[in-house]
From TrEMBL:
InterPro entries: C-N_Hydrolase, C-N_Hydrolase_sf, UPF0012_CS
The organism's place on the tree of life at top rank: Eukaryota
Residue ranges that the Swiss-Prot or TrEMBL entry lists as coiled coil: none
Protein name (database record): NIT1 amidase
Residue ranges constituting the CN hydrolase domain according to the UniProt record: 1-150
PROSITE patterns tied to this protein: CN_HYDROLASE, UPF0012
Pfam families (alphabetical): CN_hydrolase
Length: 181
């Protein structure tokens, strides 16, 4: 993220996509990338406090919730989802992250053929803190605009204060039950 000629944050993707969807997609990011080692604090911008994540990180709600606790108002997910995973999971995961964190979610997405064996799903979109898609692009190159209304975001948080209702005293206390043979 740049601010008048200086770098203010550099986030490194923490979750690498190592998946094999039989007959459809095989990816092994760990074969050519090292995972990042930290989640960065949200960055202040004129639009709001921005929480940084990348692509496969979207599948891990713990990051969005940690960024929300740290003050994020907008979560970003620049991505290159595959067609099989994107068509099945892209929008629903983005909407879930917006609803559970009560943040705007901005997701720029690569679209089209990356190389002979990989095509990206595309469908860049913006979701509001209530979970409504407020702007989106379909297939191919495109640009969409959305208003980031922080007064609305704070009203959603005030009217449904889920952050204050969380029970961290209970999370992580569930013991694995023995499975009967």
């Amino acid at each position: 993220l740049l601010s008048p000629g200086r770098l203010v944050a550099a986030y490194r993707k923490t979750h690498l996509c190592d998946v094999e969807l039989e007959g459809r997609v095989t990816m092994k990011e760990s074969g050519f990338t090292n995972p990042g080692t930290e989640i960065l604090a949200p960055v202040s911008t004129p639009a709001g406090k921005l929480g940084l994540s990348i692509c496969y990180d979207l599948r891990f709600p713990e990051i969005s919730l940690a960024l929300r606790r740290a003050g994020a108002e907008i979560l970003t997910y620049p991505s290159a989802f595959t067609v099989p995973t994107g068509s099945a999971h892209w929008e629903v995961l983005l909407r879930a992250r917006a609803i559970e964190s009560q943040c705007y979610v901005v997701a720029a997405a690569q679209s089209g053929k990356n190389h002979e064996s990989r095509t990206s799903y595309g469908h860049s979109l913006v979701v509001d803190p209530w979970g409504a898609v407020v702007a989106q692009c379909r297939e191919g190159p495109g640009l969409c605009y959305a208003e980031i209304d922080l007064d609305y975001l704070h009203r959603v948080r005030r009217e449904m204060p889920v952050q204050g209702h969380r029970r961290p005293d209970l999370y992580g206390t569930v013991a694995a039950a023995g499975l009967a043979p």
